[in-house]
Specification:
The structure holds two protein chains of two kinds. By secondary structure, chain A is an alpha+beta fold. Chain A contains twelve helices and six strands. Chain A has three domains: about 45 residues, no CATH class; about 80 residues, no CATH class; about 220 residues, no CATH class. Chain B starts with 16 loop residues before the first helix and ends in a 6-residue tail after the last helix. Classes of the chains: A alpha+beta, B mainly alpha. Chains A and B meet through helix 3, helix 4 and helix 12 of A and helix 1, helix 2, helix 5 and helix 7 of B.
């Protein structure tokens, strides 16, 4: 380094012996450096030797003050450590809150991406099922389209439809039996299983029967068990509803009470229907051929044989037609298995209104949510605390060193 | 000047705060006096020892008790100076300059005027270096700044002072 820059360090005795020797050589040859060094000496001497000598005031008071404060070592100041720990806990809590939200949004993004991928492909006819299961007691809000939105994509995937280019509303309103995609013919048989919890099982059963009739369907089976205790009452209905009205029927069920579970299974009947159609046509062609042969034959024995074959073919045609009709019915009608469960009213008098029910359910949900959150925080704190304790201690140690 | 207590101790002493008051009060008071003036110096010094008593566990043997006390005194005095909205009084120099070339000194009044013109930060490192005779690391610890900054401030303070003294009447020839 330049000796001129080191002159102050030389004066402050901050240089190594080698550096000091170099500066001393420079001092001997450069009078300006010597002059600068002389200035430092003069300045230091002038400041030190001209400081006014004054007696310190207030020593006795200070002594009295520290004695009155206490001569023992003060208690350890935990504040810096507590502050550091609080900061660490804050970070843990933030992670505990942010991470689940982040994970949730990540899953949602994955689902959206997956749905988007489906929307760009034409699925081969196959069997798909979707299910919206809820925890026992959890309530699906009346008229909520969310479950519909969840169930819809799988239907659309099977049908080869572009699920996300059409609105949820239109999907909800559209029957799943027909495909609007040109060149793709998908005829679906829809099976739904809905479990609904109601206050009055008997009344709900009647309402369902009426609704099914109004929608152009029929109840094919009813099993019910009605007792005085609402929670022990229940009913099971198998209904056939026109496929185009199945969503309206599901909506009606939601309006009756609390939907506990909802699952849907869609079976593509296109191949079956086409096969059965072809079989019928083939059998009819064979029938026509036998009839022509009967018209042309002159021998009695041959005629008897042909009549036997004709009877057999006509029998097969009848069976194939019946199967085809059944298949078409399955395409036209959705099968809905409805399980009705009774539920107890909150008040002993059984006069709980829907409003108070909702408030109670909402409060319970919130309490459960809070419990889950606290549990998550506790788990995160326990999991991450071994990591944070040394970090906090290091920060605390550095803080103390800096303060010292 | 009292500089006998600059020896570094390697272990935390089993001290009593009274011992510190007896040993270091004059020095701490003098330091506070050069920042605040005589009126507020006693309050600042007393506050320094009360704070030191409270923070005694934070004391590390790497620094001397004087450095520890000066660090506290600096923070307290700075806060009091800011609160009082006053400027640092430079009335702690009295003229002892003589005509003798061996004991030549810069006249106190000239030096006072020059010191008043440099920045408080530069002035403080000069006071700690030349009057308190602390080394660079101790000054850095007291002021809570890196040693490099202390060196830089010292360099600039000297350069500015020299320039001011060269242009002032009765200053450097």
């Amino acid at each position: 380094m330049n000796p001129k820059e080191q002159i102050r360090a030389y004066y402050d005795q901050q240089l190594s012996p080698a550096e000091a020797a170099e500066v001393e050589r420079a001092l001997a040859s450069d009078p300006t450096l010597a002059e600068e060094l002389e200035f430092y000496k003069l300045l230091g001497r002038s400041m030190r030797e001209q400081v006014r000598e004054e007696p310190a005031v207030g020593m006795a008071e200070t002594m009295a003050k520290v004695r009155s404060t206490g001569n023992v070592l003060p208690k350890k100041n935990w504040w810096p450590l507590m502050r550091t720990m609080a900061a660490a806990c804050g970070v843990v809590v933030i992670i505990a809150v942010i991470f689940p939200i982040f994970a949730q949004s990540k899953n949602a993004a994955k689902e959206t991406a997956a749905s988007g991928a489906y929307s760009s492909t034409v699925a081969t006819p196959s069997t798909e099922s979707s299910s919206v299961e809820m925890q026992d007691g959890a309530k699906m809000p009346t008229g909520d389209m969310e479950s519909e939105a969840k169930a819809a994509p799988s239907r659309e995937r099977v049908a080869g439809k572009n699920a996300y280019t059409e609105g949820l509303e239109s999907r909800a309103a559209q029957p799943p039996t027909a495909s609007s995609k040109p060149g793709v013919s998908a005829e679906m048989h829809v099976e739904k299983n809905i479990t609904v919890r109601v206050d009055d099982v008997e009344k709900a059963t009647d309402e369902i029967s009426d609704t099914v009739s109004a929608l152009g369907g029929k109840v094919t089976n009813i099993n019910s068990s009605i007792t005085d205790n609402p929670t022990e009452s229940g009913a099971s209905l198998t209904v056939m509803v026109p496929a185009k009205n199945v969503d309206a029927f599901a909506k009606t069920l939601r309006g009756m009470g609390e939907v506990v579970s909802l699952s849907e299974n869609s079976v593509d009947m296109s191949e079956v229907r086409i096969s059965q159609d072809a079989q019928v046509r083939q059998l009819k062609a064979e029938e026509e051929a036998i009839l022509n042969m009967i018209r042309r034959t002159r021998r009695l024995s041959e005629l008897n044989s042909l009549r036997g074959q004709l009877a057999s073919i006509q029998g097969q045609i009848a069976v194939a037609n019946q199967a085809l009709t059944q298949t078409k019915d399955q395409i036209r009608y959705a099968t809905v298995q409805v399980q009705i469960e009774g539920r107890s009213t909150l008040n002993s008098g059984g006069t709980t209104t829907g409003w108070s029910n909702e408030v109670w359910a909402s409060a319970l949900d919130n309490l459960k949510g809070m419990g889950r959150l606290l549990g998550s925080v506790a788990i995160y704190a326990l999991v991450y605390s071994p990591i944070w304790i040394p970090a906090a201690l290091i920060i605390h140690w550095i803080t103390r060193r800096r303060m010292a | 000047m009292m500089h006998a207590m600059t020896t570094k101790s390697r272990a935390v002493p089993d001290f009593q705060i009274e011992q510190w008051v007896e040993t270091y009060y004059s020095q701490v008071w003098g330091f506070c006096r050069r920042i605040l003036g005589p009126e507020l110096a006693s309050d600042a010094a007393q506050e320094t020892f009360v704070t030191a008593q409270r923070k005694i566990r934070d004391y590390r043997a790497e620094s001397t008790p004087r450095t520890f006390l000066y660090g506290i005194a600096w923070r307290i005095s700075s806060a009091m100076l800011r609160k009082s909205k006053r400027e640092t009084p430079i009335d702690w120099l009295e003229n002892r300059a003589t005509a003798s070339p061996e004991s030549q000194l810069i006249e106190a009044e000239v030096l006072r005027q020059a010191l008043a013109k440099i920045s408080p930060e530069h002035r403080m490192v000069l006071i700690l270096k030349e009057i308190e005779q602390l080394d660079i690391n101790e000054i850095a610890r007291i002021l809570g700044i890196p040693p490099g900054t202390v060196k830089s401030r010292l360099h600039h303070a000297c350069r500015n002072l020299r320039s001011l003294l060269q242009t002032s009447e009765g200053g450097l020839k």
